[in-house]
């Protein structure tokens, strides 16, 4: 089945290719191919030949001529050509696309090189290649001494040449793809540093307002929009919320004045492109905050400098959020001491908060050098994007919030690992893209045309479009938060928030039982818990307390403890009511009755099932 | 359940009871009462094959009364059905002795339960407590103390509180019925709701309306209330269109209600409805019901509105129900119900356990050890035990727990609470191994290796 479906897909993509290459006639002017064919035809023939070879697999050896004849006869319809060749060659072959073979790579390479030189701009062509393959291919390409071509031609060509080699290794083939070498593409793209940060803190400490201010001052949001929001806010008597409404857009959030869900926004400074994930501070929405924090490279902790606010926050979500982001793997923290205008910009207050928080954060496992304290005021905008007006706070000579954000070092990207995207949202991207998801690429790379495996449904889907920072792109790499438009999958049936898109070669197992090493914040007993990972909020229970461990060495202190005390490290076994996609090393959070009881690392998973990677058949 | 006739010798544990189950909940009691090796006599339908002299066979379904020696029971909580499997113990003209049969116990039809006949493994056990001088002999197997208590509870005719509850969060709702003895998950509704996104507002609102609509119609169907008429909702087209859309691509499809509307509208006793969620979902849903009720002027819905309780829970998962029931505002309204008591008890136990002063323990071996040392006795000792343990198919296993219960009750003077495994609190207990105890003094934990050695020795 799957083979047929794919083959059908190929023929669609042929059409795409046709369009895309229309404007690039001169690519092939000195191509030493069939002179009688127009460039479009050549290109079709070329691509079609590869396709057919792939589809035929290694066991059928058809000559170039045979394939091209077949293609010509069937007007480049790959499906029919494959059928034809198969019927004359080896009728018993059933499973296509196992081990594609390269066609004569020399000419194609040159051709591709030219193509790329002109058509680096020619965009939106589908194409996946799991990185390891691409990299292998890359190596190979280098060895075969095509340095020159590679150096001068853009990466597009590289990818083309290489992928042809790489195709040998593909077990699930890529179709209609531009076959970019995404890693190389990324390296040479010279993108600015990009960072995602999550804004955390206690409810009503002004996270959304601060971010609204930041966007406004950086001209991401124009004056008119702000004025409109201000009027709307005034009419319902919440004028101080106007800036927060830049982030809080749902009617519920505006009416109640509380952020409910993660809001995402982008801005750019001269050095870095940022993605803001504005987290809800309210205790009930900590699962949403976790969903945001799991997409972040670093965190901005917003603290209300007002009397009592700081103290009550420290007991509440200031503490919980800080512990959570730390246990979710965030190392760097910018502490924005907000509402300094209400505290009259007193240096004493700032210092007091700084001291208390430093002590707490060090305890929580943040390194001092990774924590920056910035006094600011979201409402007035002082020390957010512009520094404090003269005379207001003569004691402060540090950076503004924005420059503190810029100090973020680019996070390491797991480019070469297999693809992983945890679905943070599923929506209808419009008429062209009826099914879209968004989420952060935790590892790997993705390009338009890639086939991805959706776990736990075990279905394959194809990437029909990609957006990063609201702009259509050809590829995305680990660390970016991308919107992925999918086709060939029934989203209502197979996709849920928290599912994982992964490379078909390395699917994520679906797990109902796992062992985790946890750091407990509250007492942990064998009890029912919510297991949170990204957007996943799964019901389950702690089945057994395996052992308490030594905090530093990890050695077993006591086996089978009755209870795990707060602050202790333990190994526990957890069973879930329903399987979720999970891998060793994933970070999970355990919550009970609205409290975070522990955060941990998955150590061993017992998978329930591993769906075949080839989809149904 | 009605007790029609009873003939039980409490001394030997032998005897029979004739029972008449009247409502689905009674099947749950029957499930807890009937254990392997008991004899159950009830009417049954059996297919009988007859061979004529010429060798052709005919197959008939006959109604007959069968007596089975029970080998296993199977309870379907959703349908409220109990299947009793066993071997025929009394031959009749249709069925041979020893033939296998599975009975479906039926509502409003008597069945007879005989326990403690010779092969039932009745025995009496000498208990010795911490104080070795007083010895008590108790019946184990047959109509032992647990079986009698269950029988008493099952035949208690008082009307019991029932409540509907919807535990929800955005996109997920668990609709359940809490009865005195069980929490029944009637339906889980999942509707994908897009998250907050720039420009995605209308999409989200639409999905939310669809979600509420689905939950409400599903809820009404389960409560056997008439669905809100489509005619009434034309005024607000949002709801109506959402409903239509949903029928084509939703997870739950609407069926016509099982009872005619007139039957339930005349029913004055509307069960209370508890809505619980994190954040604002429950109150938004409450508002939605209110609007729908006003729009459609549906009487049953308006009546229902008066009985709605809105509460806070930390998640939309079923296990949050325990936390909802324990919350003061709800607890006061449900005060005298069994599930509230059980929930409170579990909370107390967990509180004790958190103190970690050794005065609370859990797990089979640990509790037995504590009872052995007399720590679960007069003056505050409480044994919490899930009734799932008494349903064990292994006779020796059941005997072990009955002995433990009797020991605490008879010898030590401690309190015993049997928790229903079908409630959330019982599930919490089950995750602790099904048995836990609040102790009067701290019992030293035996060294683990030691315990294992002992276990090995006793096994060998």
From TrEMBL, chain A:
Biased composition annotated in UniProt, kind: Basic and acidic residues: 101-111
Chief subcellular location: cytoplasm
One Gene Ontology term of the molecular function aspect: GTPase activity
Domain (Tr-type G) ranges: 192-413
Matches recorded under Gene3D superfamilies: P-loop containing nucleotide triphosphate hydrolases, Translation factors
SUPFAM superfamilies to which the protein is assigned, alphabetical: EF-Tu/eEF-1alpha/eIF2-gamma C-terminal domain (SSF50465), P-loop containing nucleoside triphosphate hydrolases (SSF52540), Translation proteins (SSF50447)
InterPro entries in the cross-refs: G_TR_CS, HBS1-like_N, P-loop_NTPase, T_Tr_GTP-bd_dom, TRAFAC_GTPase_members, Transl_B-barrel_sf, Transl_elong_EF1A/Init_IF2_C, Transl_elong_EFTu/EF1A_C
Pfam families per the UniProt record, alphabetical: GTP_EFTU, GTP_EFTU_D3, HBS1_N
Bilayer-spanning residue ranges: none
Catalytic reaction annotation: GTP + H2O = GDP + phosphate + H(+)
Location of region: Disordered: 1-46, 90-163
One annotated GO biological process: regulation of translation
A single Gene Ontology CC term: cytosol
Highest taxon above the source species: Eukaryota
Bias (Low complexity): 112-126
Localisation: Cytoplasm
Keyword set includes Protein biosynthesis: yes
PROSITE patterns assigned to the protein according to its UniProt record, in alphabetical order: G_TR_1, G_TR_2
Subunit record text: Component of the Dom34-Hbs1 complex, also named Pelota-HBS1L complex, composed of dom34 and hbs1.
Family: Belongs to the TRAFAC class translation factor GTPase superfamily. Classic translation factor GTPase family. EF-Tu/EF-1A subfamily.
Name of this chain's protein: Elongation factor 1 alpha-like protein
UniProtKB/TrEMBL annotation, chain B:
Single annotated GO MF: metal ion binding
This protein's name: ERF1 domain 1-domain-containing protein
Keyword Transport in annotation: no
The keyword Cytoplasm belongs to this UniProt entry's keyword annotation: yes
GO biological process: nonfunctional rRNA decay; nuclear-transcribed mRNA catabolic process, no-go decay; nuclear-transcribed mRNA catabolic process, non-stop decay; ribosome disassembly; RNA surveillance
UniProt-annotated stretches for the region Disordered: 248-267
Compartments where located: Cytoplasm
Main location: cytoplasm
InterPro entries in the record: eFR1_2_sf, eRF1_2, eRF1_3, eRF1_Pelota-like_N, Pelota/DOM34_N, Pelota_N, Ribosomal_eL30-like_sf, TF_pelota
Source species of the chain: Lineolata rhizophorae
């Amino acid at each position: 089945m799957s083979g047929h479906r794919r083959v059908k897909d190929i023929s669609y993509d042929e059409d795409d290719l046709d369009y895309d290459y229309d404007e690039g006639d001169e690519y092939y002017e000195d191509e030493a191919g069939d002179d009688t064919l127009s460039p479009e035809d050549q290109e079709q023939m070329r691509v079609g030949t590869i396709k057919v070879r792939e589809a035929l697999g290694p066991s059928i050896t058809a000559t170039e001529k045979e394939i091209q004849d077949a293609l010509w006869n069937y007007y480049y319809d790959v499906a029919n050509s494959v059928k034809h060749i198969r019927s004359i060659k080896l009728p018993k072959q059933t499973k296509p696309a196992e081990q594609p073979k390269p066609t004569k790579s020399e000419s194609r390479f040159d051709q591709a090189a030219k193509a790329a030189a002109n058509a680096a701009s020619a965009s939106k062509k589908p194409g996946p290649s799991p990185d390891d393959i691409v990299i292998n291919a890359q190596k190979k390409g280098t060895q075969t001494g095509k340095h020159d071509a590679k150096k001068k031609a853009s990466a597009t060509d590289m990818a083309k040449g290489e992928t042809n080699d790489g195709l040998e290794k593909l077990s699930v083939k890529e179709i209609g793809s531009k076959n970019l070498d995404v890693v190389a593409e990324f390296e040479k793209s010279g993108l600015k540093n990009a960072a995602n940060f999550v804004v955390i803190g206690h409810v009503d400490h002004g996270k959304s307002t601060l971010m609204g201010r930041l966007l406004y001052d950086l001209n991401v949001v124009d004056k008119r929009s702000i004025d409109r929001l201000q009027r709307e806010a005034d009419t319902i008597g919440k004028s101080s919320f106007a800036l927060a409404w830049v982030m809080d857009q749902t009617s519920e959030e505006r009416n109640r004045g509380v952020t409910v869900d993660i809001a995402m926004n982008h801005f750019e400074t001269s050095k870095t492109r940022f993605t803001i994930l504005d987290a809800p501070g309210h205790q009930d929405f900590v699962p949403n905050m976790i969903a945001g924090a799991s997409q972040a490279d670093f965190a901005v902790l917003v603290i209300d400098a007002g009397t009592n606010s700081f103290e009550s926050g420290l007991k509440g979500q200031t503490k919980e959020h800080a512990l959570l982001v730390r246990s979710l793997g965030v190392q760097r923290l910018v502490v924005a001491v907000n509402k300094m205008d209400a505290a009259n910009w007193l240096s004493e207050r700032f210092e007091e908060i700084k001291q208390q928080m430093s002590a707490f954060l060090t305890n929580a496992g943040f390194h001092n050098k990774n924590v920056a304290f910035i006094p600011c005021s979201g409402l007035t905008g002082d020390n957010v994007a512009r520094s404090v007006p003269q005379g207001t706070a003569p004691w402060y000579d540090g950076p503004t919030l924005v420059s503190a954000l810029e100090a973020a070092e680019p996070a390491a990207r797991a480019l070469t690992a297999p693809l992983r995207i945890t679905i943070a949202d599923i929506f209808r991207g419009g008429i062209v893209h009826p099914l879209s998801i968004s989420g952060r690429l935790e590892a790997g790379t993705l390009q338009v045309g890639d086939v991805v495996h959706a776990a736990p449904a075990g279905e394959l889907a194809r990437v029909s479009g990609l957006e990063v920072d609201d702009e259509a792109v050809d590829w995305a790499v680990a660390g970016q938060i991308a919107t992925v438009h999918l086709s060939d999958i029934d989203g209502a049936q197979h996709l849920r928030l928290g599912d994982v898109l992964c490379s078909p070669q390395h699917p994520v197992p679906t797990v109902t039982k796992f062992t985790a090493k946890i750091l407990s914040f509250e007492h942990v007993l064998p009890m029912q818990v919510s297991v949170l990972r990204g957007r996943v909020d799964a019901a389950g229970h702690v089945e057994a307390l395996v052992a308490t461990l030594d905090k530093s060495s990890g050695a077993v202190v006591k086996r089978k403890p009755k209870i795990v005390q707060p602050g202790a490290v333990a190994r526990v076994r957890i069973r879930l009511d329903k399987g979720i996609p999970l891998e060793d090393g994933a970070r999970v959070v355990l919550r009970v009755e609205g409290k975070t009881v522990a955060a941990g690392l998955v150590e061993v998973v017992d998978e329930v099932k591993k769906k075949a990677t080839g989809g149904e058949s | 359940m009605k007790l029609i006739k009873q003939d039980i010798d409490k001394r030997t544990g032998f005897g029979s009871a004739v029972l008449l189950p009247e409502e689905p909940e009674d099947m749950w009691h029957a499930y807890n009462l009937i254990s392997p090796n008991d004899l159950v006599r009830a009417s049954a339908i059996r297919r009988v094959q007859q061979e004529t002299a010429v060798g052709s066979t005919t197959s008939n379904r006959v109604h007959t009364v069968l007596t089975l020696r029970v080998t296993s029971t199977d309870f379907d909580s959703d349908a409220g059905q109990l299947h009793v499997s066993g071997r025929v113990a009394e031959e009749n003209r249709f069925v041979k002795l020893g033939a296998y049969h599975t009975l479906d116990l039926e509502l409003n039809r008597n069945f007879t339960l005989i326990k403690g006949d010779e092969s039932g493994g009745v025995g009496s056990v000498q208990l010795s407590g911490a104080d070795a001088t007083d010895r008590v002999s108790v019946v184990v197997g047959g109509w032992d103390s647990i079986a009698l208590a269950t029988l008493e509870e099952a035949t208690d005719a008082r009307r019991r509180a029932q409540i509907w509850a919807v535990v929800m969060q955005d996109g997920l709702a668990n609709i359940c019925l809490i009865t005195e003895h069980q929490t029944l998950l009637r339906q889980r509704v999942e509707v994908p709701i897009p998250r907050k996104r720039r420009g995605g507002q209308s999409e989200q609102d639409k999905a939310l309306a669809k979600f509420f609509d689905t939950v409400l119609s599903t809820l009404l169907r389960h409560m056997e209330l008439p669905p809100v008429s489509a005619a009434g909702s034309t005024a607000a087209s949002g709801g109506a269109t959402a409903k239509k859309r949903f029928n084509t691509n939703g997870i739950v499809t609407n069926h016509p209600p099982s009872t005619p509307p007139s039957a339930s509208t005349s029913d004055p006793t509307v069960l209370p409805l508890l809505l619980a969620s994190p954040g604002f979902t429950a109150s938004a849903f409450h508002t939605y019901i209110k609007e729908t009720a006003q729009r459609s002027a549906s009487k049953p819905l308006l009546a229902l509105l008066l009985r709605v309780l809105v509460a806070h829970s930390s998640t939309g998962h079923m296990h949050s129900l325990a936390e909802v029931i324990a919350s003061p505002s709800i607890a006061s309204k449900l005060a005298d119900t069994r599930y509230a008591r059980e929930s409170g008890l579990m909370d107390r136990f967990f509180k004790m356990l958190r103190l970690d002063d050794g005065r609370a323990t859990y797990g089979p071996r640990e509790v037995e050890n504590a009872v052995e040392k007399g720590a679960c006795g007069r003056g505050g000792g409480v044994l919490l035990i899930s009734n799932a343990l008494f349903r064990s198919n292994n006779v020796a296993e059941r005997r072990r727990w009955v002995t433990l219960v009797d020991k605490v009750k008879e010898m030590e003077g401690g309190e015993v609470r049997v928790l229903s495994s079908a409630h959330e609190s019982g599930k919490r207990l089950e995750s602790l191994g099904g048995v836990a105890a609040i102790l009067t003094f701290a019992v030293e934990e035996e060294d683990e290796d030691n315990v294992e050695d002992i276990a090995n020795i006793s096994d060998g």
